[in-house]
TrEMBL record:
Functional summary from the UniProt entry: Required for the first step of diphthamide biosynthesis, the transfer of 3-amino-3-carboxypropyl from S-adenosyl-L-methionine to a histidine residue. Diphthamide is a post-translational modification of histidine which occurs in elongation factor 2.
Native source species: Tricholomella constricta
Record's protein name: Diphthamide biosynthesis protein 4
Record region (Disordered): 463-484
GO biological process: protein histidyl modification to diphthamide
Signal peptide: none
One Gene Ontology term of the molecular function aspect: metal ion binding
Family from the record: Belongs to the DPH4 family.
Matches recorded under InterPro entries: DnaJ_domain (IPR001623), DPH_MB_dom (IPR007872), DPH_MB_sf (IPR036671), F-box-like_dom_sf (IPR036047), F-box_dom (IPR001810), J_dom_sf (IPR036869), LRR_dom_sf (IPR032675), SRC_co-chaperone (IPR052758)
Length: 746
């Protein structure tokens, strides 16, 4: 029979992996006239064989069509069902595959154990693939879609709470989020108009909020729009507005012009009127009566003129009052404060020239927590204010001395809550300020800015310990510091941040003592004696003080600060800031800092692009958050991020780089090789040779390469400071100072 010959050739070709030939033979057998007449119950074998070829060729649709033909022709045979199960598994149609596998297993005879095992394994594979698909879907499923729309809307409200611009980001995440955000009016309660398409944004927000806009912010540049004010502004729910911030726009004048005055701003809680530039344009006379009806709690005028008298007449519910210039009739300032005893935050920065009479009654502001006064009148007004809840006090630009004001503040006020004091460009006697600091146990921030004198004495009082030698001149012999008095021990124990920028008399010594006195005591080794009697004098003092560590130190513009101490400050204080001029920076680096080219690992003729790449590489290499493993006790890392930034700022600018190169050449010609770092002798380990104390002693310090720096007492007697590593070419500068032998031997 012809079909059998074609079928036999197809089987042979299939076994020989000649799939195209096998497909041709099986197709020929399937269409043979003899097959149609004589195929009988063997016809399903041809379709099953051709399905196997299609499966091998990666043609699942054709294979599945033949498998279906097999099932139609031989419903009581297992072959078609097993083939369909495998094909459905490849197509990830697990339910259909499982159904076919079960039907195939039902049709396998019990005696055919091997075939039953194969189909059982196939069914197990289908179950495992089904479970894996379920896990994948659960992992990739958007869980937010299961949340109720109301709950998801509340989540979105939390997201945009601090920045309403985040609403735009929410709209772009996915379609579901966009639908929820688009149809949640409460997310559109805050309207911020900028110079970019303000009219279109106004119309959109009014529509989406459904009349629920509660905050209106008109930014700079909007009022200069050709169509401002837009007609749509009349459609805002002015009687429900809680917050209004307007730049260069008279809100009250607009409301009065369009007949919205009777009920507008009746729910306002915070109002800020601002001008882009200093202006004498006054707010509309109807503004304060409107605010009086609303019971406004927060009011700010920035570069916008207003009347203190009108404010005192109409407003009595303020808790926040911020004034930045351009006020009229300053005589009404004190009545305004008296009319608002609930004030919690008061900031006044004004250039008015006014002095209140001596017989002016004091102003009791028992809830005042934040006070900032800037102007020649600041000391005079500070004398009049009485409060017991003050937490922040900042005085700037006072023409008169602050002595009387600080004395009143110290005597009449409860300063236990005071955490921040700032004195800027205002004369003050150090002794009076120190007396005030003795009653501020919770003080964490102290700013003494632009003071011609007195700042150094205050820092000295806060330190309470003697001046240590500079890191390059320490002696091998340590002398204990005298203990401080009880009064000094409790002076501002919570202090963590100090800023003495541009104070002319600040010296290095008091700052060093302040930082050192408040360093935490070293953690004792596991085998060390923990008996309090065994503690050193310094540790005992720190324990008695119970002081917080200095976390921030700023001394910009303090030219008397020794640049030699900058690395030490940056090591001991996490946030240390000092700005140096380019020339001072070069001079400070000329003797004690490593070569900037070596620091960035670039040749001296490196291009600007190469220096920039090396700078970013050095930041990654030495950044403490990325390389904590570098700062180990055995291998201390002395290269700070600030030093890397200093190197880049000089080498990236041609003129400064040229000046630096010239200074480097002159220094090398005069003093020899540049040290990689400055290391105090206290960080060296002393090794004595022999039992005789008169024998020569050696101090050694481990290098980053694994070698050691060694210096002997004979070298120190000769004044040698440069020491080379025993294994590499690196050189360090050893800081020490020899003691004279003229002391008292008794």
């Amino acid at each position: 029979m012809a079909w059998k010959a074609s079928f036999g050739h197809g089987v042979s070709s299939f076994k020989a992996s000649r799939l195209d030939e096998a497909l041709s033979h099986f197709t020929q057998a399937s269409i043979s006239h003899a097959l149609k007449e004589q195929g009988g119950d063997q016809q399903h074998l041809i379709y099953d064989s051709r399905a196997a070829v299609y499966e091998k060729l990666g043609m699942p649709k054709e294979a599945l069509r033949d498998a279906k033909a097999v099932i139609t022709l031989a419903q009581d045979q297992w072959q078609g069902y097993a083939r369909a199960a495998r094909l459905f598994l490849l197509a990830r149609k697990f339910d259909a595959a499982l159904k076919m596998a079960n039907m195939a297993l039902d049709r396998v005879k019990p005696a055919n154990a091997a075939r039953r095992v194969d189909i059982t394994n196939l069914r197990d594979d289908i179950h495992e693939a089904q479970r894996a698909e379920g896990r994948r879907k659960r992992a990739s499923q958007n869980q937010f879609e299961k949340l109720p729309v109301e709950l998801l809307g509340e989540v979105f409200r939390l997201v945009i709470w601090s920045d309403v611009a985040e609403l735009i980001g929410l709209l772009r995440v996915c379609r579901h989020w966009r639908n929820v955000a688009w149809h949640t009016p409460s997310l559109w309660e805050t309207l911020v108009l900028t110079s970019k398409s303000p009219a279109r944004k106004l119309s959109l927000w009014i529509k989406q909020s459904k009349g629920r806009i509660r905050e209106l912010h008109v930014k700079a540049g909007v009022a200069s729009h050709i169509d401002w004010p837009f007609q749509e502004l009349k459609d805002l729910p002015w009687d429900k507005l809680r917050v209004c911030n307007a730049v260069s726009w008279d809100v009250a004048g607009f409301l009065e012009k369009h007949g919205l005055v009777p009920h507008a701003l009746s729910a306002i809680e915070a109002l800020e009127m601002q001008e882009e530039q200093w202006s004498r344009r006054r707010a509309s006379p109807s503004l304060f009566p409107l605010l009086q009806t609303a019971g406004v709690r927060s009011l700010s005028f920035i570069r916008s003129e207003f009347s203190w008298t009108e404010l005192a007449t109409h407003l009595t519910t303020l808790t926040t009052l911020h004034i930045f210039g351009c006020s009229k009739d300053p005589a009404g300032l004190v009545p305004t404060l008296m009319a608002n005893p609930g004030l919690e935050s008061l900031i006044i920065q004004d250039s008015i020239l006014f002095t209140w009479p001596v017989d002016t009654a004091p102003v009791l502001l028992s809830h005042l927590k934040h006070l900032e006064l800037q102007g020649s009148w600041a000391s005079n007004l500070l004398e009049l204010i009485t409060t017991s809840a003050l937490e922040t006090c900042k005085i700037k630009g006072s023409r008169g001395s602050l002595d009387t004001a600080l004395t009143v503040l110290n005597v009449a006020h409860n300063l236990s809550n005071l955490t921040h004091i700032a004195v800027d460009s205002s004369p003050v006697t150090p002794a009076i300020l120190i007396r005030l600091l003795k009653h501020t146990p919770a003080l964490t921030r102290l700013e003494l800015l632009f003071l011609s004198k007195g700042a150094n004495a205050v820092i000295e009082a806060l330190a309470g310990t003697p001046m240590p030698p500079p890191p390059s001149k320490r002696t091998p012999t340590k002398t204990p510091a005298p203990a401080s008095t009880d009064e000094e021990r409790i002076l501002c124990p919570a202090l963590t941040h100090v800023n003495v920028s541009h104070s002319a008399d600040i010296r290095t010594g008091p700052l060093v003592r302040l930082v050192r006195a408040r360093l935490p005591p070293p953690t004792p080794a596991p085998h060390a004696d923990t008996d309090p009697a065994a503690m050193t004098v310094d540790d005992s003092e720190r324990e008695a003080r119970k002081c917080a560590r200095i976390l921030g130190l700023t001394f910009d513009g303090c030219e008397q600060i020794d640049a030699e101490w900058l690395p030490w400050f940056r090591k001991q204080v996490p946030l240390t800031f000092r700005k140096l001029s380019p020339l001072n920076l070069i001079l400070a680096a000329s003797e004690f800092q490593p070569d900037f080219y070596e620091l960035l690992s670039v040749p001296k003729d490196a291009s600007a692009a190469e220096i920039k790449i090396a700078y970013h590489r050095a930041l990654l290499r030495f950044h403490p958050d990325k390389n904590n493993h570098l700062n180990t006790p055995s291998k201390p890392e002395s290269i700070s991020i600030s030093l890397i930034k200093d190197a880049y700022s000089i080498l990236s600018e041609p003129s400064r780089r040229k000046q630096y190169d010239s200074s480097t050449r002159q220094r090398i010609a005069a003093v020899g090789p540049r040290p990689a770092q400055v290391v105090s002798l206290e960080e060296f380990e002393e090794v004595t040779h022999g039992s005789d104390p008169e024998e020569i002693s050696t101090w050694q310090y481990e290098c980053r390469c694994g070698g050691n720096y060694r210096i002997e007492s004979s070298d120190m007697e000769k004044g040698h400071h440069l020491v080379g590593c025993s294994s590499c070419s690196e050189v360090v500068w050893v800081g020490y100072e020899l003691q004279s032998d003229t002391g008292d031997d008794g």
